[in-house]
Amino acid sequence: MSYKVPLFDLNFDEKEELAVQNVIRSKWISTGPKCLEFEQTFASMFRAKHAVSLSNCTVALHLAMKLLNIQDGDEVICPSLTFVATVNCIRYVNATPVFADVTSTSDLNIDPAEIERLITPKTRAIIVMHYGGFPCQMDRIMEIARKHNIPVVEDACHGPLSEYKGQKLGTIGDIGCFSFFSNKNISTGEGGMLITNNDEYAAKAKLLRSHGMTTMSYQRASGHSTEYDVVEAGFNYRMDDIHAAIGIVQLQKIQEDLEQRILHRKQYLSLLSNNTKLIIPFADCNEFVSNYIFPVVLKGYGKDRRNEMRTKLHEMGVQTSVHYPAVHRFSIFERYARPLPMTEDATDNELTLPMYGKLSEEDIAYVCECVNKVIQ
Ligand SMILES: *Cc1c(COP(=O)(O)O)cnc(C)c1O
Predict the structure, then answer these.
(1) Is 268 found in the same domain as 233?
(2) Which of 106, 145, 153, 232 is 20 to 30 A (C-alpha) from 224?
(3) Residues 36 and 158 in one domain
């Protein structure tokens, strides 16, 4: 089905096509100079000491667990209102996810008070996810984490260039993870980045992304090295130059895209804030934010009525989504479930409306007209 207003549209043009063509014509298509350029540009834009390009964000999260040496029986505090990859990574290393509730239906980020309550002698890491690119309460979270000497991983997939009190998301905790999946703010198809200010973590991430080998084939092909040793049971988690070339172009476009999204959010707020059946999360957030999505929460509708609203909007040509089905309700995570009243309220009542840079004022006016008609 084609929608009058889709949820998302790729910010692609001839520049991405040309970048890919150039890499193909160079005949070096795997990890090489484009990955390095993408990493260097990313690190400087995000004001991080190191950026390590990877095949996607799921493996970035896995490597984060490995770098922090999380093991069998360790506990990792995480949200449930997130994409399942945030939590799957904890199981890759046989650790136990400990779900923390979100603050409220108007602040869909992990609740620092919950984090503090859930810390035990077995807690080895805290993973936060900046919902929609709106920053978690990082001052309080870092204070709790430092007090207990627990490292913090930021799943910053939603928040490229988003800020919290002047700092870029992904650089406040110990490790930041980003995704370049097609529907993210920066799209390469598949792709991910791990950023850190810690030299050891960066070196180990580079080792683990390439089989635990001490050199990569590009270094060998360019004559810098002929032999290698294998010092860890590593993985193949590398990005390649085709994806990196697209990423470099996307980085040139992101600032403008984010500025357009900020205007779209303003228009949404002005057209929807009179609807008393809706909560607009993070309505009073004044930070520079990526606006990965535009979420609203219906007041006390429940899952079935929310889904009916979605069907009606789809019939009107407005594509919507739900961010997210709560992870603790999935079969494999039920055994880790605990009472999460705010998360359950949010997951049953949240509705995601279209958001991308190239949306027009007419598109947003139409979406809001449909929403106000359907939800009253
Ligand atoms: C997209 C996303 C991921 C997974 O990223 P991939 O690159 O698809 O592996 C993880 N966490 C969050 C919050 C995401 O939005």
Answers:
(1) no
(2) 232
(3) yes
Same domain as 364, residue 324? yes
CA distance 138 to 166: 12
What are residue 189's DSSP bridge partners?
181
Asked which of 250, 267, 302 is the last residue of a domain, the reply is 250
Would 186 be classed as within a structural domain?
A: yes
| pTM score above 0.90 | yes
Q: Which residues contact 231 (CB under 8 A, 6 or more apart)?
A: 207, 212, 214
Pocket, ligand 1, Cβ cutoff 6 A: 56-58, 82-83, 85-86, 129, 155, 157-158, 179, 181, 192
Question: By 3-state DSSP, what share of the chain in percent is helix, strand and coil, each rounded to 5?
Answer: 40, 15, 40
pLDDT digits (tens, 9 = 90+) for 13-51: 999 999 999 999 999 999 999 999 999 999 999 999 999
pLDDT in tens, 129-173: 999 999 999 999 999 999 999 999 999 999 999 999 999 999 999
pLDDT of 107 higher than 70: yes
